[in-house]
Amino acid sequence: MNTMERWAGKVALVTGASSGIGWEIAKSLVQHDIQVVGLARRFDKLQELAEKLGKSKFYPIQCDVTKENDILRAFKWAEERLGGVDILVNNAGNTMPSLIIDSSIELCREVINSNLMAPMIFAREFINAIRKRNVSGHIINISSIAGRYPETFRVPVGIYSVTKSSLYTLGVELRNEIMACNLDIRVTTINPGGVLTDLLKFALNCGDEITEKITLLSGKDIADTVICALGASPGAEVFELTIIPQKIIVGAPVPQLEN
């Protein structure tokens, strides 16, 4: 039996679903017969995805993840219309093109609210809803290699890496609390390497020409990783996954072994 069959007909909530990684994750989940509630600020983009995937399979909801009332409204809609959420994918993220030492508190707080506070609120509402329904669930937090292994970057990326690093600790704490409450909820943190998204282009202040300089992952690579975590065998929990591009940086010197 395909272990993904256990999720057929279930409901997933995906944040940041209007483009990039979230868009690909939503498409992949629908392909596995999972209903998706897609959240993002750009409602027009969500509607485009609904037209492609089917309005009975993908449900677009405009949501600013930095606003708690928007989050609560999304969960209420999913409960009333679809019976509740079984899979939560915390994907939405934000960054800032400046150093921490040059940034205002307001700008830092904006990134913190998007990258850490929002996933925490989503997880809280999800876990409490699962506990109320007494069913199984799965939380997937999309972090970053910049947060898990920031020492490998050797270049500043502002408060982005700080917030993404916190997602790992959030996953640990959630798992501890889930076990303490004897709930059947898995938690997975995924740490992608560089992924070709609008967020990356914004952070590096570049366009599509970046693909000519470095090798990047695609959104589908991350979506496949999400399916891998969801499809783990019963009794097994994929707690953390790190995925990086297989190829080396284009133009980088290749070490030569001596004969």
Instruction: Enumerate the spans where pLDDT stays under 50 for 5 or more consecutive residues.
Output: 197-207, 209-213, 249-259
- Taking the alpha carbons of the first and last residues, their distance comes to 50 Å
Structural category: alpha/beta
Number of strands: 7
Strand content: 5-15%
Radius of gyration: 18 Å
Give structural notes.
This protein is α/β, with parallel strands linked by helices. The protein contains eight helices and seven strands. The protein is globular, with a radius of gyration of 18 Å.
SSE diagram, text form:
Elements: E1 11-15, H1 20-31, E2 35-40, H2 43-53, E3 58-62, H3 68-82, E4 87-90, H4 105-133, E5 137-142, H5 145-148, H6 160-180, E6 185-192, H7 198-204, H8 219-230, E7 240-243
Task: Using brief descriptors, characterize the structure shown.
alpha/beta, 7-stranded parallel β-sheet, 43% helix, globular, disordered C terminus, 259 residues
In short:
The protein has helices at residues 20-31, 43-53, 68-82, 105-133, 145-148, 160-180, 198-204, 219-230, and strands at 11-15, 35-40, 58-62, 87-90, 137-142, 185-192, 240-243. It is of the alpha/beta class and 259 residues long.
